[in-house]
Hints:
- The chain contains 5 helices and 6 strands; from the N terminus they run H-H-E-E-H-E-E-E-E-H-H.
- The chain is of the alpha+beta class.
- It has a single domain (4-152), classed as Nuclear Transport Factor 2, Chain: A.
- It has a 6-stranded mixed sheet.
- Strand 3 and strand 4 form a beta hairpin.
- Helix 2 (27-34) packs across helix 3 (55-68) and helix 3 (55-68) packs antiparallel against helix 5 (137-152).
- The longest helix is centred in the last third of the chain and has 16 residues, at 137-152.
- The protein is globular and about 45 Å long.
- It starts with a helix and ends with a helix.
Amino acid sequence: MPTHEELLVPLGKIGEAFSPGSDKSKNISIWEEALTEDVVWEAPFAEPPIYIKGRRAVGMFFDWLLENVPNFEMALENVYFTEGEASYVIQVSGGGPVLGGGVYNQQYFSLIRIHDGKISYFREHFKVAETYRAFGRDRFHDSIAEMQRVADGDA
């Protein structure tokens, strides 16, 4: 069983991409280092629920967020490790100015599972109304659908 420190390594890599002033051209290699090929990111309480599968699609989602909030800042507030599993729950606050105006101000609670030293699963809970306010409901969901189509090779 990995140590708590080992479980946090891939999350730290993701944090590098979200650091203000980071070189976004390195994100693809960060996603490869931090995410399993078949990683799942889901937000079951969004309306409609969101389910994204695959490193390419999840990486595209993270890149989309960073493109729309280029000075995204986040703070890890708490980590809650589970017993008997390579997983934990994190509490994170994050956001910043949105391209085109406004500010994105979010609170996240995410269940993260680790497999072979990489993140294999994100189950994210966040303020859906804040996401829709900042990005627009239809625009947000259309972007998610397009990311999955591209990742699946359908676009």
